[in-house]
Structures
1.
Amino acid sequence: MPDKASATSPRETAIHCAGLDVFYGQGATRHHAVKQASFDVAKGESFGIVGGSGSGKSTILRVLAGLDGDWQGEVSVLGHRRATGSAPQRDYRLKVQMIFQDPFGSLHPRHTIDRCLSEAMRCHGFDRIEQRVVSALDRVGLGKSFRFRFPHQLSGGQRQRVAIARALVLEPEVLLLDEPTSALDASIQAEVLNLLQEVRRDLGTTFLFVSHDLGVIAHMCDRVAVMRQGEVVETLPASRITAGEVAHPYTRELLANCYAAQPVEFVQAV
Ligand SMILES: Nc1ncnc2c1ncn2[C@@H]1O[C@H](COP(=O)(O)OP(=O)(O)O)[C@@H](O)[C@H]1O
Ligand SMILES: [Mg+2]
């Protein structure tokens, strides 16, 4: 199914996903988690995927990151066509970085922040590693005093800043963000969202931003795909969400829940 919204964008495509089906399990218990999902993301765009728990958002990100096997459809990122059953190339793994919801789970508990940031760079043959670590910690607002601390000595928000720094040292062109602030308190969430906005403004990174929270998605993204039970039910500009002009009844339901759960001031203050 062609993605109508992307046809309006003259920019180069960063992510192309057409007719994506993803399954978990085998035989009678095989579960069709993503059904015929299609969308395109332009270079430098921030594209959101919003939907309730279990709607297939993380599953799509995992396919794009090269983490999941049982899928079919057309998927390419930065011109690299992904093939079912094969791990992505080194260059792909460098240019496409993922940030997870739980920053504690994604950081090795016995490695210092310095080691955590340096190792991936070493693995990819970067030079000036120390300089890059310090500058990444500065960019995410932590500073070099954090270099030799361990994850358990940091707050949740600080750990998520480290996870962002770890992705940024590799100079990715695409960031896959899986509910990156859902585990954080509202005020810390706003700080981390602002940091991500700065990153995109300064570096021009393409974002694929997943959240169950329509307010966060509308604030962070240019366009949004709405998912329900494995299907993309609607793709629309975020401005239509903020204006309350949504077509699909499910999107309307999400919008009503969002404003019922969160005062509008919070959404604007993020
Ligand atoms: N590893 C897995 N094994 C089996 N089923 C899974 C697995 N991961 C996700 N699922 C199922 O796939 C569906 C989509 O999950 P997920 O992509 O995690 O949703 P979301 O991120 O939108 O909450 C859900 O029904 C979930 O239970
Ligand atoms: Mg998820």
2.
Amino acid sequence: MAEVRLQQISKSYGNNQVLQGIDLHVRNGEFMVFVGPSGCGKSTLLRMIAGLEDISAGELHIDNQLANDIPPAKRGLAMVFQSYALYPHMTVYENMAFSLSLTSMNKAEIDTAVQHAASILQMTHLLQRKPRDLSGGQRQRVAIGRAIVRKPGLFLFDEPLSNLDASLRVQMRIELSKLHRELAATMIYVTHDQVEAMTLGQRIAVFNGGKIEQIGAPLELYDKPVNLFVAGFLGSPKMNIVKARVLRNFGNVVELQLAAGTHINVQLDASNLQTGEEVSLGIRAEHILLASQTTEHSNQLEVCISFVEHLGDAAIVYATLAGEENLFAIKLPADTSDLYAGADLCIQLPGHRCHVFDNKGIAVGL
Ligand SMILES: Nc1ncnc2c1ncn2[C@@H]1O[C@H](COP(=O)(O)OP(=O)(O)OP(=O)(O)O)[C@@H](O)[C@H]1O
Ligand SMILES: [Mg+2]
């Protein structure tokens, strides 16, 4: 196991600053996920931890040792990339044994390490095959096996599953979680797939434009996003966001007015909001109720169905809301009747499920 501390880490290529002031503590044995849109600097940061990129400013500590200038091979870590980069002329066994053969380990020790990794990854029967005779998932497992044999305290993964088809990705996700438990190693995993982040990470760091927006457990980020970016990035469909104005502020309840005039009461600590202030109101699709399902008469509004996605276990309704450009997504039980384009729907936004963001996009009342 290993512990990683980043203090005010920055990275520039020439005049182009791609990471700014990154502070992060990855705990011993933790599964930490870096997630964020393309180009936000996830791979660059991972490569800096690996020692494949110089650190422009700040300090990297691995196990309480300043590691900025420690060469990659001496950092006690192993990295797995999206492209498996296996040696095509070598068997699976040879691919896994290769890096060990460069050390002082003898043949018997290498064999024990390879056999152990193969059994963890359930590929003992594949050891004599060449990479070309393997499926994509099997090749990726060899790449992970090559990392395991070195018994690193820290694994770095850069989008290792993105070349695999959807069902294999789900299977490999489960295997990676199992592997993390079995090896009791620290893992840092980069992805731009928010589902992968939510399902794999014990904690997630959400990146945007070279900065970390929020760090926390998956459900903490989902339930309490600190700003509009995190709110919109995690969750599918995206959190609905509409413009609103503060009408009245009762301290622990705030009354908002939407563009079409509807009033919505939200329960939160609103002590920092001013009457008249422009804000954004957010609510997730699964938290919206049909007015017919509730006895509560406040917070109701009329929408018009634009189209419906039937997912089998649920239906996602996309509807227009007077005064709003963006469609509103509403997740309803699959057997909800009368869902068709053009139909009017009366919905209710439960006040304790609403999020409010101030005019800078910062969450109110957290
Ligand atoms: N060697 C380089 N020289 C100059 N700019 C670079 C270099 N490597 C990366 N960049 C820039 O740094 C930024 C961050 O790149 P990075 O590869 O870390 O993004 P990422 O978050 O991993 O994105 P993706 O999800 O697409 O893999 C990008 O704007 C990229 O163009
Ligand atoms: Mg990348």
3.
Amino acid sequence: MLTKTMKAIQQHTFGGPEVLCYEDAPIPELASGEVLVRVRAVGLNPPDWYLRDGYKMLPPEWQPKVTFPIILGTDISGVVEAVSEDVTAFSPGDEVYTMVRFPSGLAGGSQAYAEYVNVPVEELALKPAGIDHVHAAAAPMSLLTAWQFMIDLGHEVPNPLQPHKHEPVPLSGKTVLVNGAAGGVGHFAVQLAKWKGARVIAVASGAQEAFVRSLGADEFIDYTTTKAEEQLRDLDLVIDAVGGPTTGRFLQTLKRGGALFPVFPLGFDGKDEAEKLGVTVSSVQVRSSGTQLAKLADLLAAGTVRVGVDSTFALEDAKSAHERATRGGTQGKIVLTVR
Ligand SMILES: NC(=O)c1ccc[n+]([C@@H]2O[C@H](COP(=O)([O-])OP(=O)(O)OC[C@H]3O[C@@H](n4cnc5c(N)ncnc54)[C@H](OP(=O)(O)O)[C@@H]3O)[C@@H](O)[C@H]2O)c1
């Protein structure tokens, strides 16, 4: 029998890691079409610190309006505690993983830093066999992002940031550069490109070379000593898992007909140059999908795609996990564990 309260990380104001408080919160009530998951691990992602901070990098009119307290987080792995009457696909005791309500929950509606989370059934998938909750929780947002950019968008919902539909490009026999290759999205992008038969050039800081080569990178560039955009030409695809205003520097590295996929597209102002060079620039806003996570579970279970875990922290120590993220130099993902 469940008590009505749980422990969660809540915040009552925007700010730095110090605003994250471990305290009692109501256990979410199940609505139609939902599954209540007892959380075992929570994967961290940049939208967690963007929201913690009030999405300060967005123009004020785009900043989400929230009602405090809020609970951050989207990615969980855990065990089904209960299902609503109309759910037949999952049963109590099933081990599951998911990215909850993204982007619809971007203003605090996903609520993953908690002992219990309710999840729309269509966003849930069985946890990959043979990997633990920590590794499963580390995968959803980063891996779905790489998958939706590179392999299969998987939906028809328009992207508010661009007028055209995103189309993944063929990878077999192509040369693909992954910038930010040791990060959450980047380390999966390297592996998906290799899996599809591309030659992969990975860009990261020098300490990450062995890690990204172990994921399949054929060549490595240390961005702290070498400017990739000055070294490389005639690439087929650049996945820029750093993105932002500097992403346009990669246009010159691409052949006519090539593509630049900035994972963080805000600030790109090279549209005219891209047109002149015959390069497609396209981005995706990652969306929750239980169907895609079920496919990805097979790749994870087979070891075709591996999850890099940089570090783990107890849920109650979410503040230290956010401080770890702020320091940078992470190798894969940061994960919270829940007792
Ligand atoms: N479009 C979407 O739906 C979507 C989805 C997920 C994420 N994102 C965005 O994608 C970006 C990456 O997300 P993530 O989860 O992969 O973050 P992450 O785990 O923090 O990875 C970012 C990586 O970029 C590296 N980096 C930083 N500056 C660099 C530079 N100048 N050159 C090369 N590498 C550099 C970092 O390495 P060091 O720390 O060693 O510098 C880190 O490994 C974020 O901006 C995030 O908001 C977008």
